[in-house]
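Chapter review: from sequence to fold.
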Amino acid sequence: DLVRSRGLGDVYKRQAMQTELIKLASAQKTISKALVEDPNNSDLLNLLRWTQQQELDLLKQLYSPQWQEI
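The token string follows.
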């Protein structure tokens, strides 16, 4: 049978991911403020895109069901 995993390890993993999401949001806010001053800065634009992709990857991990055999 397949069941959804809800172990204590999953709880700690989710907390760590949520902490990372908060850090990414803060970084995105800071980068966005810097882009107001220099909207064509390619390094800042690339960094913003990277943080957004990291955020999407974490969200996929956080909300994708994990299955295990019992």
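Two observations follow directly from the output. The mean pLDDT is 86. The helical segments are 8-37, 42-63.
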